[in-house]
Hints:
Elements: E1 3-10, H1 15-35, E2 42-47, E3 51-57, E4 66-74, H2 79-89, E5 98-102, E6 106-115, H3 120-133, E7 159-167, E8 174-175, E9 179-180, E10 183-184, E11 188-190, E12 199-201, H4 205-214, H5 221-238, E13 242-243, H6 247-254, E14 261-266, H7 276-287, E15 290-294, E16 299-308, H8 317-341, E17 357-359, E18 363-364, H9 365-383, H10 387-396, H11 404-408, H12 415-423, H13 428-436, H14 451-470, H15 484-497, H16 504-518, H17 522-527, H18 534-539, H19 541-550, H20 568-588, H21 594-601, H22 609-623, H23 626-649, H24 659-665, H25 668-689, H26 693-701, H27 704-713, H28 721-738
Antiparallel strand pairs: 1-3, 1-7, 2-3, 4-6, 5-6, 7-8, 9-10, 11-12, 13-15, 14-16, 15-16, 17-18
Helix pairs in contact: 1-3, 5-6, 7-8, 9-10, 9-14, 9-16, 10-13, 10-14, 12-13, 13-14, 14-15, 14-16, 15-20, 20-21, 21-22, 22-26, 23-26, 23-28, 25-26, 25-27, 25-28
Amino acid sequence: MPDLLLELFSEEIPARMQRRAAEDLKKLVTDALVERGFLYEGAQAFATPRRLTLNVVGLPVKGQDVREERKGPRVGAPEAAVQGFLKSAGLASLDQAKIEKDPKKGEFYVALIERPGRPTEEVLAEIIPQIVKTFPWPKSMRSGAASASPGSLRWVRPLQSIVCTFGPETEEPVVVRFEVDGIVSGDVTHGHRFMAPGQIKVRRYDDYAPALERAKVVLDADRRKDIILHDAKDLAFAQGLELVEDEGLLEEVAGLVEWPVVLMGSFDEAFLDIPPEVIRTTIRANQKCFVLRDPRKDKLANKFLLTSNLVAKDGGKTIVGGNERVVRARLSDAKFFWETDQKVKLEDRLEKLTTIVFHEKLGTQYERVERIAALAKELAPIVGAEPAQAERAARLAKADLVTEMVGEFPELQGLMGRYYAAIQGEPVSVASAIEEHYKPLGPSDRVPTDPVSVAVALADKIDTLVGFWAIDEKPTGSKDPYALRRAALGVIRLVLENDIRLPLIPVLNFAELRIARQFGRAEVRAFEPAYTSLIELIQNIEDRKKLTALLFDPIDGVAGKPSASGDLASIIPDLLSFFADRLKVYLRDQGARHDLIDAVFALEGQDDLLMIVRRVEALGRFLDTEDGANLLAGYRRAANILRIEEKKDGRAYNEEPNRHLIHERGQPEEKVLLEVLETAARHAHEHVMREDFEGAMRALAELRPAVDAFFDKVTVNAEDPEQRENRLRLLNAIREATRTVADFSRIEG
């Protein structure tokens, strides 16, 4: 079967775009082929700093022949209908059509259409130029004289040549001829920019890849990565050192070179007094180099590894020397920042935060720090932290944003705060919390366990979520510019992985309170003294209801403050729903069922994430048992009858069953169900109050025999209207009893 070789040769392709571009090229070409009926055996795409290459294996020589019958108008139809039929079928006259009879519709014309399959190279010449012209580069440019034309080619960097060949292994492949913006396809490519810049004539992939290798180009990015990693480890081992591995940097460096050559450089040992993370960040960011570790001293070594794109005649001495000069200059800057920053205490930097706007509708970083500190102090007793330390850590958490080091390397925020806090004598927990309050940054990131860190991390994320909900800046679709999904997942992981009992509703209310106060809500400020602590707010349900009422109106702006908008009362249920969605994602990744999460979250007041998860786990185990399956079946039978009858009657049967009527006129099965139901519901409630969810479900399972007997022997829709209504109330009691543990209507399957 013939193969396709396609190479798009450019002046440059940025490293960060290469993998995605290779995958895009493969998908666009193969999808276009399949849409036209051209199936293939396999495809692989590659990228280097100068070329995108695609190899599609097992394509047919031509497309399949098409033979179809097309039904036309009735014999004697208007001339316009006949002409339309002839045109669509490609017929010159009705003589080329046949007439068929239909017993009901009479005679009608039929066209037999036969089209031979198109040659594959013809189809390729049609689809590839269009793909090149519309290629989805994140950023692209026009170049050359043709760039003056509005419709000229846009490419990531100037496109220089196109190779496109097609043919079977046993024959000489043909060049698929087409032209894109003056660039004519051919069978000539180029080797390494410096070591083998000459032209290379290629036939198919099997000789193309080896020819590039001889011309000092390693086509496969994964192989370039393997070469760099292997050679780096070997060089390090030869010096008694260890490579500090960095997958992100390795991926980037492999996209910068076509022929990787790893070299070792060094810097003055005096720079090792700088924190190792600073050294690594400096060398990584500025020179794309790897750092090395001395296992004997358990610290960084004063050496680094760089990846050259050529084999230098002097063994790389000039290249290494140039990199060493740059590294020395960058480390000198870092050392200056490090020493300068230590001269000013973190608390003395807080005033500068008043000049940094966090968000135009949410105030400055200083105002945000005030809110976070207040919330962290209140959260501290709940998570087992010392309130004063939590408040102190929160106040200092953002201070390093105005240091010289973080100004140069923003990715070091938090980390530098920890270093500076430790130097100025802050407690270990306070210093750690300054660094860890940003965590977890993703699903695989470590979750803080120190109580002070947990308190500040929760406060930071909750303030972020409540704030952006208050100004109606919520995630939409795939857009989440403020990383609010990550913040919610961070709260979930902090709570669950540290086994924290944290009712969300009062915590969110407290955060709302701080935001509302900041924006001048006088009535909220007057009410605030009632909440001297978050613990009191959690415990006082009636006060929480009053607070919700006070927060009903949108936030009002005041003089000198930007206005925020949004219904603060509505953000709590909306945020809880958002947490539920994030919790589903988190638990689904661990094998839990999303419908069980819905079933638990649907119960009023379910805002304790840890208890929700435990209830979900218990519900899942229970439903896997025979008792659970039978109880669910009984619930559904009762719920379905109720739904039908309530819809028919236009009313709900949510009143208590009439015990007297059941005992006086009911059937034995009714009486038994009533007694068992009351006992089971009471026991289930008692178990739930003790947070014994499996015990609650076992109590409800006791309903099974009585429910089965009721449906077997009792007619719900009795002729007596009073009995019918009472039996529907009894079914509602079954429905309500199950809500002790979950909303069974949300359970699927």
